[in-house]
Amino acid sequence: MLSDIPFGHAIYNLEHHIKTIKYSPTIAEIRGNALETDAERMKLETQERFLLMGQWEKNAGRPLLPGGEANE
């Protein structure tokens, strides 16, 4: 029932629900408002991509010069 919802979107809705409502969330509340889904999904995917890019940059070695020599 939640497989079509981006993980980040579901987590965002779950955290918001926990902060604002004292009862356990329903699946519909975790899914969130369908009208907001596209914009929120795009925002969350962008944030996730920037985090990944930061990790990739951090884990990347020094770029190589043409010919395979290390760029110091």
Question: What does this protein look like?
Answer:
The structure is a single chain. The chain is mainly α. It has one domain (7-57). It has helices at residues 7-20, 27-31, 34-59. The radius of gyration is 19 Å and the shape is elongated.
Individual helix count: 3
Structural class: mainly alpha
| Radius of gyration, CA atoms, in whole angstroms | 19 Å
How many β strands by DSSP?
0
Global mean pLDDT: 80
Tell me, briefly, the overall form: elongated
The domain count comes to 1
Q: Give unreliable regions as ranges.
A: none
Beta-strand percentage?
under 5%
For the termini, the CA-CA separation is 51 Å
Helix content: 55-70%
Mind describing the biggest β-sheet? none
What is the N-to-C order of secondary-structure elements (H for helix, E for strand)? HHH
